[in-house]
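Audit log entry. Action: structure prediction of a protein-small molecule complex. Ligand: coenzyme A. The ligand was supplied as SMILES and no pocket hint was given, so placement is left entirely to the predictor. Protonation state taken as written. Sequence taken verbatim from the request; no trimming, no tag removal. Recorded inputs:
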Amino acid sequence: MAEKKVSESKTEMSQLMMPQHANFGGTIYGGTILSIADSVAYVCAARHAGPNCVTVSVDRVDFRKPIRIGELVTFLASVNFVGHSSMEVGIKIFSENLGTGQKRHTNSCYFTMVCLNDQRKPKEVPRLVPETADEKRRYEAGRKRHEAARK
Ligand SMILES: CC(C)(COP(=O)(O)OP(=O)(O)OC[C@H]1O[C@@H](n2cnc3c(N)ncnc32)[C@H](O)[C@@H]1OP(=O)(O)O)[C@@H](O)C(=O)NCCC(=O)NCCS
């Protein structure tokens, strides 16, 4: 079976928050952030395993600080762990005030994506090769979450 390094599927995407993304109070809808995060998780999974990937689970998501219109939101994603057909994609979300340059870490979450075959059944994905100390730590934490989800 093929294998891929974590670095081969790392994904970064930024989106300027516009009025259509916000509620009446001028802060950004949580659904806007989740929708973009889902796309980013898809791109990261597809880079690792190919385009026929779907979302099966999203872990708890906390919105700790409001994001406002005019801020640039950046999503950093990498595959933390792969099982047989599933991939855990970790996403860190930062918002940047373009006036002051101040950056804030606003969210982190984990998406579980599954690669499907032409019959829409789970298909084996390439093995993941974690290289750095951080990648190895995330791999081990992802493996524990994968095992806990199967119980
Ligand atoms: C993806 C799908 C085909 C998987 O079917 P399934 O019967 O759960 O298949 P399996 O039990 O073999 O699970 C496949 C993998 O997903 C993992 N998985 C399934 N449900 C999970 C969950 N809730 N959380 C974490 N992992 C999960 C399994 O552990 C397994 O991982 P592995 O192959 O790496 O060991 C099916 O759930 C599906 O079609 N879901 C809809 C996907 C979709 O449309 N998403 C868009 C959102 S609406």
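Audit: result stored. The domain at 3-144 is CATH 3.10.129.10 (Thiol Ester Dehydrase; Chain A). The first strand starts at residue 3 and ends at 5.
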